[in-house]
Write a structure and sequence with these properties.
alpha/beta, 12 helices
Amino acid sequence: MAQFTYSRLSHLLRASGNRLLVSRTGTEVKPGPACHVQFTRCQRSVDSKALQERQKQQMAKGLPKQKPVAGVKQIIVVASGKGGVGKSTTAVNLALGLLANDPLKTVGLLDADVYGPSIPKLMNLKGNPELSDNNLMIPLVNYGVPCMSMGFLVDESAPIVWRGLMVMSAIERLLRQVDWGSLDYLVVDMPPGTGDVQLSISQNVPVAGAVIVSTPQDIALLDARRGAEMFKKVHVPVLGLVQNMSVFQCPNCNHQTHIFGSDGARQLADTLGVKLLGDVPLHLNIRETSDRGTPVVVSSPDSPEAEAYRKVASAVVQRLQEVTT
């Protein structure tokens, strides 16, 4: 089988970007004086509420139609308002927790952070994906979870110097040009923030629900709230919040210290009217196993840390059942 490389993907994305630019240029309509007069008269003849409704209808016409990903039943996005809160580690252990709770289920993992992919390191995977007979990329698999990431197509130290249009095209290919097989859940590790990638995925594929990860720290909670509000605006159900790094327990005296504050995510969940999916402690074992590419759910399944992630996975499944019924 042939291998799918970064240079090949770059060529395909530039070609598709040029076609998109030509098509947009060909359909561009330049407003003239008559259009301006008509718009002004319309604006004067309706009240503000009717005008807002008209604008919503016009915007809805321009949104892409959501198309399911072949073979995938439910897509779960794991997001955060800012980086450094343990989102990728949570996404990996959530996927493995879903599999540990029900081995009959099939779970995939997509790394949607094009500029800073973490899944190859966390899942201990290297190499380029091969191509199937249908010219689809074959995911790399470890711990029973098929994974796809831009990190499989570039060197670890190579920067991704792409503009927004190419990034959006890359996400589309990582979603749809992959032979996922048959998956019950596809967990998507989103990049931090509320930018183009989040909007593109939310508008192009039917997302079953979003998991927001935050530390209890006030500055992190501000961005987590923005992330939750964004998903609500694009009509993606917010399954709940995960309070990460909630407490540190000294390994010598067992004294507990709330380094980033206490119950901040729980209070935010109450404010937003969503569920707190669980607390994950700040623990050395989580960091060490993540750096080794042996996530704590599979390397230390009997530990309290692994149990915390499995409880989050159970809460996610319960919430999915609630929002889909």
